[in-house]
Amino acid sequence: MLDNTTGMPSFDSLQTPFRGRIGRSIVHIRKTSSTMQDARELVKLAEDIVELHGTVIIADQQTRGRGRFGRSWDSTPGKDILLSLIVCPRPSITPQLTIMASLAAALGVEALTDSAATIKWPNDVLVDGRKICGVIAEGSMIGENFAGILGIGLNVNSRPAKDAYRTYQATSIRELTNPNQAINRVDVLSVLLAKLNELYTAIDKGESIMPEWRDRLATIGSQVAVSIPTQNENADDEVISGIAEDIDEFGRLLIRESGGTLRAVASGEVTTRTHSHIP
Ligand code: BTN
C-alpha cells in the first residue's frame, strides 16, 4: 500500500507475521516528536514492564528525533526506519544491548544491499565509510526490572545530504541498491526485526556476539581521538587520543596513548585520524 502523502510504501500494510519476541507488538505512529519519548511514556505507564519486552514503536515522521550527545536526528517523513525497541533484559546482558542493535542493523543492511557494512565504535553503521544507521540507548530501573530502550534510525529511501552528519557522509539502502526504485520499508523492518530476534536470543542464551561485532569495527587499528562529553555545560569535553588497539569484554574501546598508557573508554564520539596497520 502506498502512503497518500509521501507516495512511499506505508506501514499500514504492517501485517508481517513476526514470530520472535522482538517485534511481537508493533505500535505504528504517523507523526510524533520522538519514538524514544513515546517508548519512555509507555514504560512509565506500564503496570508490568516485563509485558512490554519486545515492543517496537515505529514512526513515519519525527519532529524532534534524537541522536546521541543531545544532537537531533533528521529524516524525511515517510522514507526511513525510525524505531524504538523496549527490552527488559537480565542485568548481565545489558552491556550487550547496543552491540546487538548495531550488529543487527549491519547484518540487515548487508542482507538488503549486498554491500559490506562496518561499525564505527560504538554503534554507527557505515557502508564505504558513509553512515547508514545510528543507534541510541537509554535505560532505567523500574522496581526490580531494568527497562532498556534502543532507538534505531536507518536510512532507507532518503537521499541524505552530504554533510548530514558532522564527521561522516551518509548513505541509504536505496542509494546502495537502485536509486530509481523505492524500497518497501516493511521489508526492511522485517529483516531488521529478524536480525534483532536472532541476536537477542543468542545473548539471552549466554552466547557472545562480541567477536562478530569486533570483526566489523572499522575503528580498530586506527589513530583516533575520542571526545567524551561532560555533564557540565561550562567544561570542555575530555579528549583521549591514541591508537584504538582493541575492545575489552564490555565492549569498551582500548586506546593506547602516545605515552604508552592503555585507556578503556565506555562511550564517546570517535574521530579517526589515520590508519596505523595494526592487525
Ligand atoms: C545517532 O546519533 O547516531 C543515533 C540516532 C538514533 C535515531 C533514532 S530514530 C528513532 C529513535 N527516535 C529518536 O528520536 N531517535 C532514535
SSE map:
Blueprint lengths: L24 E8 L2 H11 L9 E8 L18 E7 L9 H17 L3 E4 L3 E4 L2 E13 L2 E10 L18 H4 L8 H20 L5 H6 L6 E7 L9 E10 L5 E4 L5 E4 L3 E7 L4
Parallel strand pairs: 1-2
Antiparallel strand pairs: 2-3, 3-7, 4-5, 5-6, 6-7, 8-9, 8-12, 9-10, 10-11
Helix pairs in contact: 2-4
Bound molecules: biotin.
Biotin (BTN) binds next to α1, β3, β6 and β7.
Task: Please provide a written account of the structure.
- The protein is an alpha+beta fold and 279 residues long.
- Helix content is 21%, strand content 31%.
- The protein has five helices and twelve strands.
- It has helices at 35-45, 97-113, 173-176, 185-204, 210-215, and strands at residues 25-32, 55-62, 81-87, 117-120, 124-127, 130-142, 145-154, 222-228, 238-247, 253-256, 262-265, 269-275.
- The strands form two sheets. Strands 1-2-3-7-6-5-4 form a seven-stranded mixed β-sheet, sandwiched between helices. Strands 11-10-9-8-12 form a five-stranded antiparallel β-sheet, with no helix packed on it.
- Strand 10 and strand 11 (262-265) form a beta hairpin.
- Helix 2 (97-113) crosses helix 4 (185-204).
- The radius of gyration is 18 Å and the shape is globular.
- The model is unreliable at 1-7 and 275-279 (pLDDT under 50).
- The structure holds biotin.
- Residues 34-36, 62, 65-68, 71, 73, 82-84, 124, 134-136, 151-153 line the site of biotin.
Order of helices and strands: EHEEHEEEEHHHEEEEE
Largest sheet: 7 strands, mixed
Strand order in the sheet with the most strands: 1-2-3-7-6-5-4
E-strand count:
12
Supply the number of helical segments: 5
Average pLDDT number = 89
List the ions, cofactors and other small molecules found in this model: biotin
Distance between the first and last residues' Cα: 48 Å
Unreliable spans: 1-7, 275-279
Structural class category: alpha+beta
- Helical content (DSSP H or I, runs of 4+): 10-25%
Shape: globular
Radius of gyration: 18 Å
Instruction: Please indicate the percent range of residues in DSSP E strands (runs of 2 or more).
Output: 25-35%
